[in-house]
Amino acid sequence: QEGTKVPSKRKQNTSLVTSDLLHENLLKSEQKNWNNISPTYKAMTKRIKEKLKELHNMYTLNSRSPRIRFGENVYFEENGCIFLAKADDDEGNAKILFSVEDLGSFDAFIQRIRISPDQRYMAISLKSENSEEATCIIMKLGNLPVVEKVIPSVFSFEWAANDVLYYTVQKNLKCQNVFMTTFPYQEHTKLVYTEQDARFFVDLYCTKDRRFLTINSNSKTTSEVWLVDCRHPFESPALVQARTTGLIYHIEHRKDLLYILTTYGEPAEYKAILTDNYIHRINLDAYCRSNRNSKLMKAPVASSGKENWQLVYAPERKTKLVDFEMFSDDCIMFLKNAGHLYLNVISFVSDSVQSIKLPTWACEFELESHPEHTTSTCYFQLSSPVHPPKRFAYSFKENNLIEQAVQEVPIIRNCHTTRLLAKSKDETLVPITVFHNKNSKELHRRPLLVHVYGAYGIDLNMSFKEEKLMLIEEGWILAYCHVRGGGEQGLSWHRDGCQHNKLKGLHDLRACIMLLHQVGFSQPKHTALAAASAGGVLAGALCNTDPALIRAMVLQAPFVDVLNTMMKTQLPLTIEEQEEWGNPLEDEKCMKYIKSYCPYQNIKPQCYPSVLISAYENDERVPLTGILQYVQKLRKAALDHASRTSKKGNWIPNIILDVQANGSHCDSSWEHSLNE
């Protein structure tokens, strides 16, 4: 229009150049600072590396990776190789089917394995530390396995038939397209499904009896499932139940009935989440409110709408359904109640339920893949941050749990597990899991490492890590705070800690640390706080509001600039993340609320704890610019405070940023994590 001012492209370009130059200058400054300070820790680094290698050799190298069983054949992955062994033979005689080194991909690791029903083909996904995207390699098996096809940027994939593979393509951290390809006719590839809503993420799953392949489209609050009939894999997918806001469901199949894990109806609390570790299967994260139960329902395949869903099983009050596995005559459910893991076995033959309490030290479990749903035994592994994975088996015939002997793996005997409940600001009780050495005396003098996450309805990661066991052996106390925003106590636990409730997670964390000190676990001057990714929001917020509670903070790829990030819709995850943090662009109250707790926005001159941050140049999820600016602002505030106060023995914290050229968002190999 006449008189309208046209923005100058020169000014726009100048602004971009200035921004890029500022980013480069900040990065160079931090790299120089890291190079100057890191030699200080050389001797300590050497000692820790040697100890971690020793523990890795003792525990992890001797522990078995999960096995995939097909009749007499057993497939497994170790050290970048995929092996085929006979079930009744020594695994030392196993045949190598694939090696990462043969492809020349020395920085890649095997993420997922899928064997075709007739075992003629094997699909593998390889992922590099420097990328979020994986490459799918299809191999034709035989006396001499050969690479049949390579598909880039693949997220999930499943065999619908002996020679028909469905797969999803990942682009800019999103999965919205499903393709089908056939073998040996490579040229026959077609688009099967496209998701139009940017909030939804698509993945694939095959029912245990291989009757259906499911196309699952999930947002953080809603899901929709389409069925591909594996007997007719070229037919169009059929809808199970149209998406309804707040309704989440997952499908299994048995004898012409769909079994549905769902939030539908009252009472119901269930939610499906893709976790960081989807090597052999997609984990399900199920939730239960304190006064409501999860639900397993069923419906005929021909009439699968929710009006036809019938209740099969609902766990007891205050029990969270973590995962389940369907077999021909039974269903196994993994449950969590008050921090303890349970195994429930539903018999469809006798119409009965048996409940088995698992060892008290167990915090995490991993189901082994059982492609044959008629098997008589279910295998799984249990672990904790300080207990290496231990293999168990449940026998349907014997109706009992069997602990599998693992060769030469020492048993952890000197670690004590304690579970506490901290009363938060609104009187909500927040669980804490504590580990310490049984032989430690004067626990109030011992160093304490506190862990927190509290976002996306995901449980705090409590899988085995060599460094956690090392700390226990050296007298440290480890505490895991299961604050609101996470998924430890159900869907309402997540809802009570997201969007306009995010401050509740901060109140929970404060209450947890204060209780730990009150009951005699360490004291503020010996306490450190650790968090990764979105856990950096609560850790960084506590650092601003209660810096006197901790002496040090360690953050890995932390999300510390919530407000500015959520204002940038051009970033790949911003629209999807609005269900977790809110939309500050359209809601002024939301903007003010985020500003009230955002770590970057609330830095002020005061006595801060020392801080070590690890970040990655290639991180697509947490922009490096936000971390660089956070560190600069935090360091300036700490120095301003020190210059204003002239107290005797005034303490200036170390604030260190290690920007790593390799690695992606909190996802690394053993070698990379060892260096870190």
Keywords:
alpha+beta; hydrolase; Pept_S9A_N; eight-stranded mixed beta sheet; 676 residues; Methylamine Dehydrogenase, Chain H; Rossmann fold; 21% helix; globular; Serine_Peptidase_S9A; seven-stranded antiparallel beta sheet
Summarize the SSE layout with pairings.
Blueprint: H1 9-37, H2 42-60, E1 67-70, E2 73-78, E3 81-86, E4 95-99, E5 108-115, E6 121-128, E7 134-140, E8 146-161, E9 164-171, E10 174-182, E11 189-194, E12 201-206, E13 212-218, E14 223-229, E15 238-241, E16 249-254, E17 257-262, E18 295-300, E19 310-313, E20 320-326, E21 330-337, E22 340-347, E23 352-357, E24 364-367, E25 377-384, E26 387-395, E27 400-403, E28 415-423, E29 429-437, E30 448-451, H3 466-473, E31 477-481, H4 491-495, H5 502-518, E32 527-532, H6 535-545, E33 552-556, H7 562-566, H8 574-581, H9 588-597, E34 610-616, H10 624-644, E35 655-660, H11 670-675
Parallel strand pairs: 30-31, 30-32, 32-33, 33-34, 34-35
Antiparallel strand pairs: 1-2, 2-3, 3-4, 5-6, 6-7, 7-8, 8-9, 9-10, 10-11, 12-13, 13-14, 14-15, 16-17, 17-18, 18-19, 20-21, 21-22, 22-23, 24-25, 25-26, 26-27, 28-29, 29-31
